[in-house]
Design brief:
Number of helices of chain A: 11
Radius of gyration of chain B: 56 Å
Order of helices and strands of chain A: HHHHHHHHHHH
Strand content of chain B: 15-25%
Radius of gyration of chain A: 17 Å
Strand content of chain A: under 5%
Distance between the termini of chain B: 173 Å
Helix content of chain A: over 70%
Helix content of chain B: 55-70%
CATH superfamily of the largest domain in chain A: Winged helix-like DNA-binding domain superfamily/Winged helix DNA-binding domain
CATH architecture of the largest domain in chain A: Orthogonal Bundle
Distance between the termini of chain A: 48 Å
Number of strands of chain B: 8
Strand order of the largest sheet of chain B: 1-2-3-4
Structural class of chain B: alpha+beta
Oligomer: heterodimer
Largest sheet of chain A: none
Structural class of chain A: mainly alpha
CATH class of the largest domain in chain A: Mainly Alpha
């Protein structure tokens, strides 16, 4: 039987970060985080044990995030931040938005993640299939074989996606 | 490197206690919903059992119909058998009725034969009477000096009839009694018909029956009827003077005489007499 507190302790941050990368917004990421753990705990019986709990948990998180992206809510909603990103030059955005002194460390972190990390912005701007390989390869430190198994694709596909994803992120630090 | 940079970028993203608390609440809510859903599943299992019940009902309804039909047949068959018995009885009664009808027809045929024989007797009597009359007429015509020779045969017949009637009126009619008629005419006061005895009343105006087995007088009724005075057209001076019975022909002959039979005419009536009752009568002779 899976212990939710243990899962929180071991994989909570990873799931939340993954959701943030996929969905781009902290609020949506937190909603997805809750849904992920709800599904994990309500479907714990479906865990067959043939893979690590971490990989199983990540696959659930990925599916939840993809469902969010496919949902009508996401397609109909334009976030104010996105609108500002499209209307204002990136350089002006960076100049205008400065880390605000928040009341708590969490607030400050949120602000810094949402508005001041160009690599994270670049990764979030990638298509989902490139986010998959980037996250699994560079955040979760999986090799190509593990990524292929996790995503259900071939290793060559993994390699090609990694190559294309890295090409898209090539200029992330030039600005 | 990209990996390190990415990890560094994501490092600030951490779960908060509030988020974990919300998540725990959401998990608990989901578990409750799941428990409720499991209860619903249990009910759905019972719903799944309902098709079995429906199958049972589907099988039970024809069985119930069969049982009802068999029960109905069990209840109805005795009635049918009773009906068949009654039908047999009715058939039997019909056969009995037919037998009775056949007997009645046979009896009717017997009566008809009797009537025919009676007719034969009448014809015989008529022919004998006519022959005697013709012979007498021939003798008389030879003695008369009339112009009857010039008359037509039809006219002579008419004349003969007229003369006969005149003779009757004068009480001087000829007695054309043949042996047959002599048998018929009787002066017996009773006639034995087998089971019954036909008797003449003391005044000679009527007839009555006596049952031979009991010796009692049988009153006139539909079953036991004898011709009465009005049937026989009895005149004041006429009385019934004799009876005779032909057992073979079941014929009762009633002799009626004027003035008590001392003088005058005699009439004989023939009546079919069967089972203690008479049917019709035929005047066969006036002498």
């Amino acid at each position: 039987m899976l212990d939710v507190e243990e899962l929180f302790r071991l994989y909570g941050n990873d799931v939340l970060r993954m959701c943030t990368v996929y969905l781009g917004k902290r609020s949506l990421a937190e909603d997805a985080f809750q849904d992920v753990f709800v599904k994990v705990m309500t479907r714990s019986g479906s865990y067959r044990g043939d893979s690590e709990v971490k990989f199983w948990l990540l696959s659930i998180a990925r599916n939840v995030c993809l469902d969010y992206l496919k949902s009508s809510y996401m397609r109909r909603t334009t976030f104010l931040g996105d609108l500002l990103d499209k209307t204002k030059p990136q350089s002006e955005e960076k100049k205008r938005i400065k880390p605000l002194p928040g009341n708590t460390v969490e607030d400050r972190l949120i602000e810094s993640i949402d508005h001041s990390n160009p690599l994270l912005d670049a990764v979030q701007a990638l298509p989902a299939k490139y986010k998959d390989v980037i996250l699994l390869r560079f955040y979760f430190d999986m090799d190509n074989e593990q990524i292929a198994k996790q995503l259900g694709i071939t290793e060559s596909t993994v390699r090609s996606r990694l190559m294309r994803a890295r090409a898209k992120l090539k200029d992330w630090g030039k600005d | 490197m990209l990996g390190d940079e990415l990890k560094k970028s994501l490092e600030p993203i951490q779960t908060s206690d509030e988020l974990l608390a919300k998540t725990r609440a959401a998990i608990e809510k989901a578990r409750l919903e799941q428990a409720a859903a499991s209860l619903n599943d249990t009910s759905s299992v019972s719903r799944k059992a309902s098709p079995r019940l429906s199958y049972f009902l589907k099988a039970a309804v024809p069985l119930a119909c069969i049982v009802l039909v068999v029960g109905g047949l069990v209840l109805l068959i005795p009635k049918f058998s009773k009906n068949s018995d009654s039908t047999t009885k009715s058939n039997r009664s019909k056969s009995e009725i037919r037998a009775q009808a056949t007997e009645a027809v046979a009896a009717a045929d017997t009566v008809a034969e009797h009537n025919k024989s009676l007719d034969g007797v009448s014809d015989l009597v008529d022919s004998e009477v006519k022959e005697e009359y013709d012979s007498d007429n021939d003798n008389n015509s030879a003695a008369e000096t009339t112009t009857a020779e010039n008359r037509a045969p039809e006219a002579s017949d008419t004349q003969e009839t007229t003369s006969e009637s005149e003779n009757d009126k004068n009480g001087k009619g000829n007695h054309y009694l043949t042996p047959t008629l002599e048998k018929v005419i009787s002066d017996e006061k009773t006639a034995d018909t087998g089971d019954y005895l036909v008797c003449i009343s003391d005044d000679g105006k009527s007839l009555y029956l006596i049952d031979k087995s009991t010796g009692e007088k049988i009153p006139d009724s539909e079953d036991h009827h004898l011709p009465q005075a009005e049937d026989l057209d009895l005149q004041e001076n006429e009385t019934i003077t004799g009876l005779s019975f032909n057992d073979e022909a079941k014929m009762l002959y009633i002799t009626i005489s004027e003035n008590g039979g001392n003088s005058g005419k005699q009439k004989v009536y023939a009546v079919t007499f069967l089972s203690g009752s008479s049917e019709g009568f035929i005047p066969i002779l006036v002498s």
